[in-house]
Amino acid sequence: MKALVANRSIVTRATNLLLGKSIGQGVSVEEVPKPTVADREILVHVHATALNPIDFKFIDFISPSGSLTGCDFAGVVAGAGPGAAAMWQVGDRVAGFVQGGIDTAHGSFAEYVKAEADLVWRIPDGVDDTEAATYGVSAVTAMQALNLHLNVPWPDHVDGTSKTDDDATIFIYAGSSTVGIFAIQIAKMAGWKVITTASPHSFDLVKRYGADHVFDYRAPNAVADIVAAFPNISKALDCFSEGDSTRFCGKVLQNSGGKVITLLDTKTKVSGVEAQMVMSFQLLGKAFSWLPPVGPKYSVSLSDREALVRFYTSLFSLAKEIKAPPITVLDNGFDGVIEGLNRLRAGKVSGSKLVVTY
Ligand SMILES: NC(=O)c1ccc[n+]([C@@H]2O[C@H](COP(=O)([O-])OP(=O)(O)OC[C@H]3O[C@@H](n4cnc5c(N)ncnc54)[C@H](OP(=O)(O)O)[C@@H]3O)[C@@H](O)[C@H]2O)c1
Question: Using an 8 Å Cβ cutoff, are 76 and 44 in contact?
Fold first, then answer.
């Protein structure tokens, strides 16, 4: 099959890491073996893939040369291991994500991708492939942060009533990010009040997805205005996790303490507030590490894996309520992926998910 394969040497990756930027594309289209499925795995013919910032970060700094790349996918089942055959038949429409960029077996920027049979979801009628592909890394990260770490009730277990007390209020920094757009919806499904930040050009967008109040994070008095209006918020999700964003969240939580979940390792400390980073790939239930043997290690988390199974099982009916973010479709297959990765590197994507169809 054809796939987009990482090709940076360790020297280039280390140089990129030191310089904080990348030289060249770091990928090429290559002919590689089609993945072979294990007992409880399925092979998926990829029809659409959604792009995430993590894709280019892996390619630039982490992926060993020869690794397959890309995480999110939507497509049809093209084969199943013996232990997966009862769940899936050839032709079933499925979507999910894999940890692309670390080995030669997993990557969605490819004609075919393999995945564990219970870690994909069945795409309902009315959801097209481009939409289905967006419920990968961004959606599951929002679920992981809110349902596993901030005690927001599960989307498949909510009573639908509005809750307006301080315990049922969440602050979401960067609500127009795609993680933010999913997080707003999951919190609103639980009946919570959502306070968020965005650039003014994204105010309508975040409100359309359910945010109750939105503030411009660049406004000089933004923190003071939020604290004055909502003095007792104790839960935050920092969907940017760069620069001063975690400190911003900490200040919003300053009156009641509480917890801010970050998506990157910000190393920011805010007195009286707990900051904890989540890592979406733990949802896949396998141990892994960055840049072994020196990088951070992540252990197996069976509770994360169970959470992903639960979320993906419920998505078949919930995808009507937890909607895909706005989508920008890029044509031309692998060329479209390369163009999209460059747009993400340049920070030129706002309030939209880049999706490529094959
Ligand atoms: N730990 C994990 O497992 C995990 C999982 C998913 C993502 N992530 C990381 O989380 C981050 C967000 O991912 P994503 O896919 O949601 O990204 P995304 O959709 O590409 O985020 C784009 C948004 O970032 C906002 N933004 C850009 N510059 C900003 C700034 N200086 N201050 C505040 N907001 C700014 C923009 O909002 P406005 O246009 O409104 O300004 C834009 O809508 C990325 O760093 C990603 O690598 C980590």
Answer: yes
